[in-house]
Amino acid sequence: MDAGGDSTVPELCCSPFHYVNQSGTFINNKSDADKYNGLTHSLTTLGFQQEVVQSMHRIVAGILHLGNVSFATLDDATRDGSVVRRRRQRRQ
Predict the structure, then answer these.
(1) For the CA atoms of the chain, what is the radius of gyration?
(2) d(CA 13, CA 3)
(3) Can you spell out the DSSP letters for the chain?
(4) 29-35 contacts: CB < 8 A, separation 24 or more?
(5) Which of 5, 25, 48, 81 is most buried, judging by how many CB atoms fall within 10 Å of its CB?
(6) In a structure prediction context, what are the per-residue pLDDT tens digits for the chain, which is 92 residues long?
(7) CB count in 10 Å sphere of residue 47
(8) Residue 68 · residue 16 · CB < 8 Å
């Protein structure tokens, strides 16, 4: 089962993202596809244009990916500063 399918296992889609995988607790009574379709229907009902909805998805995706960034001090003691590193994923 891949993260893009009709997964009913939230850890498949959430585990890559540090911001949403910290509790280790997943409660899920509905498939991810059903939740997504419900959200899409709600936003359409509220009158959001498709371009705005796509922008919201991009913003949330960007925030989730930024949560995987960490900073480390430079190994070079002659300079001050830090380097950007990708946060390691937790092992399940």
Answers:
(1) 18
(2) 5
(3) --TTSS---HHHHHTT-GGGSSS-----SS-HHHHHHHHHHHHHHTT--HHHHHHHHHHHHHHHHHTTEEEEE-S-TTS--EEEEEPPPPP-
(4) 31/6, 31/7, 32/6, 32/7, 32/8, 33/5, 33/6, 33/7
(5) 48
(6) 344 455 545 555 667 788 877 776 666 666 777 888 899 899 999 999 999 999 998 998 899 888 888 888 777 767 777 777 777 655 54
(7) 7
(8) yes
Question: Which amino acid is residue 3, in one-letter code?
Answer: A
Q: CA 87 → CA 24, 75, 83, distances in Å? A: 17, 18, 12
Give the pTM: 0.63
